[in-house]
Amino acid sequence: MNIAVGTSLPVHEVQVDVRPMKTMAALLGDPNPIHWDTDAVAALGMGDRPVNQGPLNMGYLMTMLAGWAGGRDRILDFQVRFLGNVLAGDRVQAEGTVTGLRVTEAGRVAECEIALKVSGGTAVLSGTASVLVEPFGLDERTRP
């Protein structure tokens, strides 16, 4: 893989659907009705569309990183800050840029700035990730 500082990661786009929100709420035991009940969302003055769960939004970024690097096990560190909401029907783009490269015992690691943006450019998650992009084989682990 030819990677340098400044390399853009392939954008991962998702059309946010309310059905996975309901499933995720059930799996997480999340009783907050803003994730499935439009009346609850409206009663809070938040519009008329359910709000996507944070773990689903983080998952879009992790899917982008894993697809680029070759697997979820390649994500070594992942830190994000929540900046806004993603709503049912939104189209989001997970994107990133390589900001640094280093060599570890495991192999070559890319440091990345990452963001999840709602179509139109508003960032709703922003953060960093360390991703193993070129693992060393067993015979290469003795490299300095």
Describe the structure.
The protein has 3 helices and 5 strands. With 144 residues, it is of the alpha+beta class. The protein has a domain at 12-17 and 51-138: Thiol Ester Dehydrase, Chain A. The protein has a 5-stranded antiparallel beta sheet.
What brief labels describe this structure?
144 residues, alpha+beta, Thiol Ester Dehydrase, Chain A, 5 strands, 23% helix
Write a brief caption for the model.
The chain is an alpha+beta fold and 144 residues long. It has three helices and five strands, in the order E-H-H-H-E-E-E-E.
Secondary-structure blueprint of this entry?
Blueprint: E1 12-15, H1 18-28, H2 38-43, H3 54-69, E2 75-82, E3 91-103, E4 107-118, E5 122-135
Antiparallel strand pairs: 1-3, 2-5, 3-4, 4-5
Strand order of the largest sheet: 1-3-4-5-2
Within the CATH hierarchy, at the fold level, what is the topology of the domain at 12-17 and 51-138?
A: Thiol Ester Dehydrase, Chain A
Average pLDDT over all residues: 92
Low-confidence stretches: none
CATH superfamily of the domain at 12-17 and 51-138: Hotdog Thioesterase
